[in-house]
Amino acid sequence: MSAGRIHPPVIPPQDRIKGFDPYVANLNDRTALYESTRCFMCFDAPCISGCPTRINIPEFIYRIKTGNYRGAAKVIRESNVFGGECGYVCPVERLCEVRCIRNNLNDEPVAIGLLQRFAYEKEKQKGLVKFDQAKRKNKKVAVVGAGPSGMSAAYELALKGYDVTVFDANPAPGGLLLYGILPWKVAWSVPENEVRNILEYGVEFTHKRVNDLSPLLKEYAAVFIGIGSTVCARCRIAGEDLPGVFLAEDFLCSVAKSIKGECKAPDLKGKRVAVVGGGDTALDAACASIRLGAAKVFLLYRRSVKEMPSVAYSRNQAREEGVEFMFLTAPTKVKGGKKVEGMECVRMELGPKDASGRSGIKPMEGSDFTLDVECVIMAVGQEPDQGTLKSFGVAVKNGLVKVDDNYATSLKGVFAGGDAVNGGDTVVEAAAEGKKAAAAIDKYLSGGK
Amino acid sequence: MVTKPDISVKLCGCELENPFMLSSAPPTCTGEMICNAFEHGWGGAVTKTIKPDKTPVYDLDNRFGVMGFEDKQMVVFENIEEVTKRKVGEWVRDIKDIKKKFPEKVLIGSLMAEPIEDDWENLARTISEAGVDMLELNFGCPHGMPERGMGAFCGQRPDLITKLTKAAKRGSSVPVMVKLTPNVTDITFMAKTASDSGADAISAINTVLGLIGVNLDTFEPIPTVDGRSTFGGMSGPGMKPIGVRCVAQIAQAVNIPVSGIGGISDWRDAVEYMLVGASNVQVCTSVMWRGYRIIGDFVDGLSRYLGDKGFSSVNEIVGLTLPKLTSWSALNKNWSVVASINKDVCIKCGLCHVACRDGGYQAINFKQGEAAEVVDEKCDACSLCYNLCPAQPGCITWKRCP
User: Fold this and answer.
1) How far is the alpha carbon of B241 from chain A, nearest alpha carbon, in Å?
2) Which residue among A41, A43, A67 sits closest to B268, beta carbon to beta carbon?
3) Chain A residues lying within 8 Å of B266, measured CB to CB
4) Peptide bond before A171: cis, by omega within 30 degrees of 0?
5) Which residue, among A282, A279, A275, has the nearest Cα to A300 in the 3D structure?
6) CA-CA-CA-CA torsion for A4, A9, A14, A18, nearest 10 degrees?
7) What pLDDT sits at residue A1?
8) B65 and B223 Cβ atoms separated by less than 8 Å
């Protein structure tokens, strides 16, 4: 049995931080063959249950093994229309790979993510795999938001024969795939390609911000809301409004736009930057800051590394690129008059676990100190735009769109999925919810319950 | 949309939706198993071999063994299992049930009996009347059964092939296929004998007689049955070259369809069998290893291959390679090439050098840290380096001699 997985070459940190390009090499025919032979093709494989879109992972890997690359891509795409993007951005170490039976042999898991990328790269050479579309039903469905959940719902509905129009405030469909995820994880050509593939099924895109659902409900038989979770939360500390304090999502969006040449990036050259937060967005902001030429980047997280929601892979990347982690540290005040002149912080200590199993925390008395920084990026969570949800008139719970088991909102004929419902999860979760909501919409419009 | 290539094939008038059948073996032990296989998408199945109720059959405990190679767990698989233990009546019920549930699938009844003509005739009558589409005569099983005058015992005796094929044909109301053993001096002679005796098709090969291994600690042969063992039937990937050779030889020798069997692990192996003349194939070991589910890739992989190559039907590839297969004497002795090493691809392992030094013509120079170099004048183009180079494809190629 082949043990030990393929670790493809990576561009060393000191070189890759000079730009925003992908830095992990893809598998080639030889390494993909080796890696695919490591898959046991387990029965009722646990890796599949780790995938929100339930890709038949052993089957696509088996097809790579037999040289049927396009057949492998088909297996992926029939479960997940963003299979290429997800191959690159999925936190596989906590979804599929963590469940790989190889782990039970004290071996490394099969590199499912890398193999999925390989299948996509082979697939795109001849154009993405297309599926038969049902006869047109002459029923119209509107999708609000062109991110992964909205586009995935639009695709599934178009496959079933619906006329779908997607509305988005951005000029091009793709949502956070194009404005939130920076290209060192995945080249933008991947989501662009996958979004174009969806439009090729006849899905219409309209560049328009939707604030009111009632005109849509007159024209369309059903509406899907996939507006994501775009408004950044704040720390609610003094000095948060000073110039030099950024909100992470906005920051990443402006970095994305600057790479596309649409605007200038925030000037961090030579500056000392503090990023506040422990999730993937915080790590992305930290690594982006490094690439913008920051002299020093601190990442402050009020709990310990064990509680960090980000995956180890991203943490290792940040560490390699020079980000300094400050655990059990919380900001209390951003100092300065006209600009940031430091951040007051306090050390935290972990207390007993609460009902949710998370350790409680409290400030350590007398542990205050000032961190010498000139920029602060807040990455302490996002939520959907509450104003928009209010004008939509859908019921909201804890700031999120409230849905039932069928992704139906409180309004008849209105469904929702993705970050606006789950509060901010992965691309693959958003794609899965869009797909499931599309099935529910089809049932609803077919007269089922 | 591009039209999908047609992968359906015909075998003696029976339409197979795809050329992939399960061979007569453990995966076709019961009607329930065959139905499950059909649900997964197999085009046809040959039942585990049915024998007269008076013939006793035993299954030994621990009747399989494997030979791995380096990190590969199984390259050759051995079995010393006998035919079905189930009664004819049970099979008749199962056959009716399978055909009722899957009328469009091809079901072939495999038969074996002692070399008594009446027994073959009667069994052929009973099973064909139960509703199978075809019969397959098992003249191939090389272990257990031959010691009692059955299986390969019959397949190694042309007179028995003639007598028993004719007997089965007398009893059968459906086409009859003869399954041959490779454990003979000349399989084409056996195939011609079967064809001349009225066989409607040939299937080959049954397993190759061998001994899969010996336990170095206990000195016991494998698979060990209470401390001892016997020779058994080899199958699996390592047996493919023998099967492909036999099928090519048979396809060149007879004018009846050939069903290819032996070491078919994926769609590519199936394509090879079809290129040398098999009109369909049968699979067992790889299904035992990973389950019926592998059929998905067989069908998808074959369809894409045909589409990529511009074929509209799988029938177009059957026998395509046969005109390129000839005798050694007929090969071109004047075709002259030498090996050529691509310096940019060479990984400087020195394996070609040592192989050529110790197993060839001392034609490859090598110094640690530098790319290997062929001395054209010394190279005899044996292809040892070409085949063992770990940086293939792309490192060692053929260069035509001026």
Assistant:
1) 18
2) A67
3) 65-66
4) no
5) A275
6) -140
7) 57
8) yes
Same domain, B367 and B221: no
Task: Count how many domains chain A has.
Answer: 3
Half-sphere exposure in the Cβ direction for B181 (13 Å, CA): 27
C-alpha closest to that of B315 among B2, B15, B22, B3: B15
Query: Average pLDDT of B73-87?
Result: 96
Q: What CA–CA distance (Å, rounded) separates B97 from A2?
A: 43
| Cβ–Cβ below 8 Å for A41 and B290 | yes
Rounded Cα gap, residues B356 and B83, in angstroms: 48
- Are A164 and A206 in a shared domain? yes
Is residue A129 domain-resident?
no
**Same domain (yes/no): B395, B255:** no
Q: Which residue is listed with tokens 């016991």?
A: B220
CA–CA min distance A106, chain B (Å): 17
Full domain range(s) for residue A216 = 140-230+384-445
Whole-angstrom Cα distance, residue A151 to residue A418? 11
* Distance of alpha carbon A219 from alpha carbon A166, whole angstroms: 13
Query: Which among A43, A66, A130 has CB closest to B268?
Result: A66
SS3 state at B48: coil
State which residue of chain B sits closest to A126, comparing Cα positions.
B308
Identify the bridge partners of residue B107 per DSSP, sorted by sequence position: B45
Is residue B332 one of the residues assigned to a domain? no
Cβ-based burial of B2 (10 A; exposed 0-12, middle 13-18, buried ≥19): exposed
**Chain position carrying tokens 């935290």:** A348
Q: Do A68 and B300 touch (CB under 8 A)?
A: yes
Which ipTM was obtained for this model? Answer: 0.91
Of A124, A148, A173, which one is at a domain's C-terminal end? A124
Residue A336: count other Cβ atoms within 10 Å of its Cβ.
17
Distance CA B182, CA A61 (A): 34
- My answer on whether A176 and A236 are in the same domain is no
A125 touches chain B (CB under 8 A): no
> Is A74–B300 a contact, with Cβ atoms under 8 angstroms apart?
yes
- Tell me whether A1 touches chain B (CB under 8 Å): yes
Nearest in space to A403 (alpha carbons), one of A223, A233, A268: A223
CA atoms within 13 A on the CB side of A138: 0
Q: What is the pTM of this model?
A: 0.94
A60, containing H or E segment: helix A57-65
Question: Are B304 and A67 inside 8 Å of each other by CB?
Answer: no
Interface with A, mutate which of B40, B71, B289, B300 (most A CBs under 10 A): B300
Answer whether residue B329 is part of any domain.
no
Does the N-terminal peptide bond of residue B393 adopt cis geometry, omega within 30 degrees of 0? yes
Q: Report the distance separating Cα B175 and Cα A354, nearest Å.
A: 75
Q: What is the DSSP letter of B345?
A: T
pLDDT tens for each residue of B97-151: 999 999 999 999 999 999 999 999 999 999 999 999 999 999 999 999 999 999 9
Instruction: Assess whether the previous peptide bond of B205 is cis (omega < 30° from 0).
Output: yes
Name the one residue in this structure whose structure tokens are 């056996």: B190
Task: Give me the DSSP letters along A271-293.
Answer: -EEEEE-SSHHHHHHHHHHHHTT
Q: Which of A427, A428, A426, A406 is nearest to A416 (CA)?
A: A406
Active site residues of B: 141
Q: Residue with structure tokens 């790979």?
A: A97
- Alpha-carbon dihedral angle through residues B215, B219, B224, B226, given to the nearest 10 degrees: -140
Quick check: is A4 in a domain? no
Model confidence pLDDT, tens digit, residues A395-444: 999 999 999 999 999 999 999 999 999 998 999 999 999 999 999 999 99
Asked if the structure places residue A134 within a domain, the reply is no
